[in-house]
C-alpha cells in the first residue's frame, strides 16, 4: 500500500480545554451555522417524485380494483400483483406529499428541511 505523504496532519489537543477559546466560549465551528434560508429551501425534485408516486400508486390500486370487480379482464394473480405494487408506490408518495403540504401550510413541527433532497 502506498503511503500518503501529501496529507497534512494536525496534533490532537493534549487537554480537553484546548477546544475552548480564551473567553470561556467555544471556538467558531462552521458546521453548526444556522442559516434560515437554507432550511426553507423547497426540494422541488423530491416533491415531484412524491406526487408522481402518489398518482402512480392510485392508478395501480384502481386497476387492481377493476380486475377484482370484473370490470377489466385479468387473472386474480395480476390483481394481487397490481395491488402490492400500488401499495408500495402509494404509501411513500402519500407520506412525502403530506409532509410537503403541511410544510407549505406552515403547520407546527413540519418544515421543508425534513424532506430529503434528491
UniProtKB/TrEMBL annotation:
Its main location: membrane. Keywords: Membrane, Transmembrane, Transmembrane helix. It is a multi-pass membrane protein. Residues 1-24 are annotated as: Disordered. It is found in: Membrane. InterPro entries: TMEM230, TMEM_230/134. The keyword Membrane applies. GO terms for cellular component: membrane. Signal peptide: none annotated. It comes from the Eukaryota. The chain crosses the membrane at residues 47-67, 79-95. Belongs to the TMEM134/TMEM230 family. This is Transmembrane protein 230. It comes from Ilex paraguariensis.
Amino acid at each position: 500500500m502506498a503511503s500518503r505523504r501529501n496529507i497534512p496532519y494536525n496534533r490532537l489537543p493534549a487537554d480537553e480545554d484546548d477546544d475552548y477559546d480564551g473567553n470561556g466560549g467555544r471556538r467558531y465551528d462552521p458546521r453548526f451555522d444556522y442559516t434560515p434560508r437554507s432550511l426553507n429551501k423547497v426540494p422541488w425534485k423530491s416533491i415531484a417524485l412524491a406526487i408522481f408516486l402518489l398518482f402512480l400508486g392510485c392508478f395501480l390500486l384502481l386497476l387492481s380494483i377493476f380486475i377484482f370487480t370484473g370490470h377489466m379482464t385479468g387473472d386474480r394473480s395480476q390483481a394481487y400483483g397490481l395491488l402490492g405494487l400500488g401499495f408500495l408506490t402509494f404509501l411513500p408518495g402519500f407520506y412525502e406529499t403530506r409532509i410537503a403540504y403541511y410544510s407549505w401550510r406552515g403547520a407546527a413541527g413540519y418544515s421543508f428541511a425534513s424532506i430529503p433532497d434528491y
